[in-house]
Structures are given as C-alpha cells and as structure tokens.
C-alpha cells in the first residue's frame, strides 16, 4: 500500500528527484545526504513503512541548508585559480609522474597545496590517485587499507596480501599523491617507497608525491641517517611559504576588485600572515556576505579582519 504524501512532501520528493538526476545516482546522493539507499528508494515509491515524517524532515533540512548556501553571494570563483604557488605544485606533481620515484611539495598551511592536488587529480583522473593522511592513520596497515580503498583492491586483513592486492591495481606511469603527508611515519614512507622501487626494478615508473607542511622535510633532515634511502630517492623537492604569495595571485583570486589597489594591497598583506590564502578568502567572503562582492568596501574588510582578530 502506497503512502499518501502531502503537497509539501511531494515538493520535497521533487527536489529529491532533481538531486538524484544531478548526481546521476541514487546511491551517490544517499551517501551525500547521509541516508540509506533503500530508504530513499522506498520513499520515492511511497512504500516506506517506517517513520515517513522523520525521513522527510531529514530531506527538508538538507535541502533548506543547500538552498540557503546557494543564495550566498558568489564573491570569488570556487573553481581552481592558478596562483603562482599552485601552478608550481602542479608542475612538481607532473614531474613526479613523469620521472617516478619520490617528490616532496611542502608549504605553509592555506597557500593552495590541496587546490593544486585536486586540480591535478581532475586533469589526470585515469592514472592518478590521492589519499589524505591524518593522525588516525598511524600504522602501515592503516595506510595500506586507505590506498586499497582508493584503488578498489578489495578487502583483506593480512598486511602482505593487502600490499600484493594494491600492487595488482597499480601500473607503469601512475602517480600516487599523499596529501597532509606530514602525518606519515617513517615505516609508512618506507612502505610507499616499496611500491615505487618495485616499478623502478622493472624499468618502469611509479611516482609518489608527498604534499604537506614543512614538518615532513624537517623530520627527514633531522633524521638523515634513518631517512637516507628515502632522501636518495627524492627526484623533486620544493618548499613554499606565505611570503611567496604574489600580489598578482590576489588579483586572480578576487577578480571583482582586481583594479582596486587599496583593497588588493590590504588583502595581499593579510595573505602574508598566518591566514595565508585560505584565511584571506574567508575574510573577503565574510566582508561580502551582505552584498555584491564588487561593493565590498575597504572599511568592511578592515572591520571583519578586526572581528577575526587578524593583525
């Protein structure tokens, strides 16, 4: 027996249909919204026998948040912006893929490293994979599980079998990018090196790019004897700082005010602080919340900076 929906619920279901059509998969949308694929299917058919009101409210709350987000002023493009630093990191990733072996791109937080990684992944999706480390992945096994999931290597509990399963999914000319690489342990980097060495011994290439903050280089240099095998296999090493951010980068990031010298100079100054590019973008967006981005005044930027305790 089908459930009789109210007009309000029918409107929510229509939004659901539109969202699924946009994502091209009900399963993918279910993951995004945090609901069961089966529940969504039954709601669409009108055969859900649980608390329909509760599930409909979850969908209503989700769509409300997304609609409010869509109404926010579009102050800068959310697409990739080719700044001087992100462009160089992109080049490092490309060189690592071409040469194989290890590469390190280290830099201050918020300067565009992850943006470059995402852009490279988008442009080289067929032969590049990426993982992001954090403190939860502290063992070699956890690292291998993370990689196995990315390359669809299946599930196994034994570490050596996991390594073999991953290797079967890798191929000559591929690149593995490890973002937030400062969280890698020595043993984990050694495990990564073993993949690269395997292909090198076969006369092939497999690149591993470590992208993170300067701590990863500090650790290597302060323990050179221990990391000697890894250091010897580094083909490219680059370090970037907030002070490397150019005025032209700020103009690219904020095209609506690119010709306003006073505002651009102020935002450039902010970008040289601990805020870097990420914090500067946040500052600008907050200053423009109540109006068109081109109307954002210098005084509003200063006021928001003060509120954010930026000096």
Short description:
The chain has 15 helices and 5 strands. The protein is an alpha/beta fold and 311 residues long.
Account of the 3D structure:
There is one protein chain. By secondary structure, the chain is α/β, with parallel strands linked by helices. The chain has 3 domains: 7-70, 434 Repressor (Amino-terminal Domain); 84-243, P-loop containing nucleotide triphosphate hydrolases (Rossmann fold, 3-Layer(aba) Sandwich), CATH 3.40.50.300; 245-307. The chain is built from 15 helices and 5 strands. It has helices at 7-23, 26-33, 37-45, 52-70, 84-99, 113-123, 140-150, 159-169, 186-201, 215-222, 228-232, 247-253, 261-271, 276-287, 298-307, and strands at 101-107, 128-132, 174-179, 206-212, 234-240. The chain has a 5-stranded parallel sheet, with helices on both faces. Strand 3, helix 9 and strand 4 (206-212) form a beta-alpha-beta unit. The longest helix has 19 residues, at 52-70. The protein is flat, with a radius of gyration of 24 Å.
CATH fold category name of the largest domain: Rossmann fold
Q: Helicity range of the residues?
A: 40-55%
CATH architecture of the largest domain: 3-Layer(aba) Sandwich
Structural class of the secondary elements? alpha/beta
Look at the structure and give the CATH class of the largest domain: Alpha Beta
Trace the largest sheet across and list its strands.
2-3-4-1-5
- Number of extended strands: 5
**End-to-end gap:** 64 Å
What share of residues are in beta strands?
A: 5-15%
Shape, please? flat
Number of domains: 3
Radius of gyration, rounded? 24 Å
Give the integer mean of the pLDDT values.
90
Number of helices: 15
CATH superfamily of the largest domain: P-loop containing nucleotide triphosphate hydrolases
Main sheet makeup: 5 strands, parallel
Low-confidence runs (pLDDT<50, min 5 residues)? none
Q: SSE order in H/E notation?
A: HHHHHEHEHHEHEHHEHHHH
């Amino acid at each position: 027996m089908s459930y009789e929906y109210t007009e309000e619920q029918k409107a929510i279901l229509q939004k659901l249909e539109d969202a699924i059509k946009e994502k091209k998969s009900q399963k993918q949308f279910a993951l995004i919204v945090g609901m069961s694929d089966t529940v969504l299917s039954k709601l669409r058919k009108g055969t859900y026998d649980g608390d329909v009101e509760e599930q409909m409210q979850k969908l209503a709350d989700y769509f409300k948040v997304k609609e409010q987000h869509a109404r926010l002023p579009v102050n800068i493009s959310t697409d990739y912006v080719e700044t001087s630093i992100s462009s160089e990191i992109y080049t490092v990733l490309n060189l690592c893929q071409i040469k194989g072996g290890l590469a390190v791109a280290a830099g201050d937080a918020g300067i565009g490293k992850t943006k470059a990684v995402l852009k490279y992944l988008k442009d080289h999706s067929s032969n590049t994979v990426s993982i992001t480390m954090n403190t939860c992945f502290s063992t070699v096994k956890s690292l291998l599980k993370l990689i196995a999931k990315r390359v669809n290597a299946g599930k196994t509990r034994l570490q050596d079998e996991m390594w073999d399963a991953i290797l079967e999914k890798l191929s000559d000319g591929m690149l593995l990018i490890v973002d937030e690489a400062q969280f890698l342990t020595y043993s984990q980097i050694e495990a990564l090196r073993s993949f690269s060495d395997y292909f090198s011994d076969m006369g092939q290439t497999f690149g591993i790019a470590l992208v993170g903050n300067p701590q990863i280089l500090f650790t290597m240099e302060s323990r050179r004897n221990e990391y000697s095998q890894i250091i010897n296999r580094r083909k490219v090493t680059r370090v970037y700082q907030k002070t490397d951010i150019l005025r032209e980068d700020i103009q690219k990031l904020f095209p609506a005010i690119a010709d306003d010298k006073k505002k651009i100079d102020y935002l450039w100054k902010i970008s040289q602080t601990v805020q870097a590019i990420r914090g500067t973008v946040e500052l600008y967006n907050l200053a423009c919340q109540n109006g068109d981005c081109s109307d954002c005044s210098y005084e509003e930027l200063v006021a928001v900076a003060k509120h954010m305790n930026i000096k």
